[in-house]
Amino acid sequence: xxxxxxxxxxxxxxxxxxxxxxxxxxxxxxxxxxxxxxxxxxxxxxxxxxxxxxxxxxxxxxxxxxxxxxxxxxxxxxxxxxxxxxxxxxxxxxxxxxxxxxxxxxxxxxxxxxxxxxxxxxxxxxxxxxxxxxxxxxxxxxxxxxx
Amino acid sequence: xxxxxxxxxxxxxxxxxxxxxxxxxxxxxxxxxxxxxxxxxxxxxxxxxxxxxxxxxxxxxxxxxxxxxxxxxxxxxxxxxxxxxxxxxxxxxxxxxxxxxxxxxxxxxxxxxxxxxxxxxxxxxxxxxxxxxxxxxxxxxxx
Lengths: 147, 143
Description:
The structure holds two protein chains of two kinds.
Chain A lengths: L14 E4 L2 H11 L9 H6 L12 H8 L3 H8 L6 E10 L8 E13 L5 E10 L5 E11 L2
Antiparallel strand pairs in A: 1-3, 2-5, 3-4, 4-5
Chain B lengths: L3 H4 L8 E6 L5 H11 L9 H6 L9 H15 L5 E8 L10 E12 L2 E11 L5 E11 L3
Antiparallel strand pairs in B: 1-3, 2-5, 3-4, 4-5
């Protein structure tokens, strides 16, 4: 019988996506964050960016709009959607990401642990490189499959 | 607006930073967030699915609350200085909940590259329930 641990080391098909300025504005509007840094290039340049930067959590939109759909992802991990919880999310910012950049993302399952109560914890790590091959970000996620 | 820790470089470890108070989460906000983020898990937007899932109604995306926390972080440290930001989700948020994001300076260290600060971040609702807890790290430019 297959166990959640079998997914340890599993690597998803890499994907690429371009960061769009309109998408940054859309996410900020949904969050209710009116920071002009994400709207106006002049403001971004005053703050030392080469262009409009992405917000701390924007990379999720790159994943969701370019990577496997949520259903696909859960399918590949054998997790029933109704039993899924988002446990933890962590981002490391290594270099700026701006509107117009094209990122290539690779996601790997770095660890899986099943608890005694049947709960399974999946750790996923995604690395992001830009169009110049620079390693710009890492995302670490923990997904929880409830029994 | 200058981020708090740049405007107040003398802030000591243990100090509570100004909290960010968000307006009530609405169903429309969850719909907008689904479209913007691309997370279309229907438990966030479709009442019947959320009921079937045993949630008693739609619940907010955890990443929306992390987005609120990110907005708060931007008021404390410059975006360009942010190095790390991580949270653990501990409770669900429903439409009608009001989230407040609190921060506390937990570490401060002078390095060659600048001042490395760590901030403990927490998002709580109107009843004081903690929705997420986390930390962020930033390397502040030398004044």
